[in-house]
Write a structure and sequence with these properties.
By secondary structure, the chain is α/β, with parallel strands linked by helices. The chain folds into 2 domains: about 160 residues, Rossmann fold; about 100 residues, 2-Layer Sandwich (Hypothetical Protein, Haloacid Dehalogenase-like Hydrolase, Chain: A, domain 2), CATH 3.30.1240. The protein is about 40% helix and about 25% strand. A 6-stranded mixed β-sheet has the order 8-7-6-9-11-10. A 5-stranded parallel β-sheet has the order 2-1-12-13-14. The protein has a 3-stranded antiparallel β-sheet with strand order 3-4-5, covered by helices on one side. α2 runs parallel beside α11 and α4 packs antiparallel against α7. The longest helix is centred in the middle third of the chain and has 14 residues. The chain starts with a strand and ends with a helix. About 45% of the residues are buried.
Amino acid sequence: MKKILLISDLDGTLLNQTHQISPENENAIRRFKEMGGLFTLATGRMEAAVEPFIQKLGIDVPVILYNGAKIVDPVTKKVLYEKQLTIPLSLWSRFMASLTEADDMALLVYRDGQVYAPVRNAVLEKHEKKDGVVCLPFTDDLIAGPVTKVMIISDSVQKANELEQAVLNSGLPCEMVYSESNYLEILPQHATKGTALEELVRILQIDQPYTIAVGDNLNDLAMIRQADLGYAVENAHPQLAAAADAVTVHHERHAIAAIIGDYIEKRRELA
């Protein structure tokens, strides 16, 4: 029998609106693991922002972080896979200029498991509270060296679109994705949850596992396409729902528990 690997996005998928794991989802995941299934996370979050959920669920399968730019062993904390990018000075200048022009935008830079921000404002503090992280002061060496990702949070769709176009015009080899409607992420080239899932299967050295991926937004698109079975939650972005093999219940209705109950436990395909 094939080993089943279930990979879930966090925000808007596994987590409810208060950014917690429901008892229903937690219990279903534990049953799934007891039956021999493998469970892990694929998220845009950084290490510190995902650690509480790793501990709560007892996850021991490598986790996909930064929307596919890094895979980390949750037990040893060893980085198993990583991609980075270097932002040209002209783009840094454009980002900083946009920050000084508006107070409804935040810029976050991720490197070596830390997150930095050049300007503190209400937008940044709201994100810190959501992810349970504290941004460090921005330092000039971040401009010169490679980073894991850059994230722009903007309450203005127009500003986000303008910066997205500026990145495109720069010719920077990278991936760009909206992980939420107002979260624009700039990632290393070929860094997606889909390519990371492919790499994760290689790392696990399991002979042809059956992969099931679940997500809600456009940053999950490559992953659900890469998986043998790709699920979208009911609250998913329309484009993701259209690409999914199946649509499950709303994330507020314990979507992961529904998938485990409806598909995995009924078919008993676990090794």
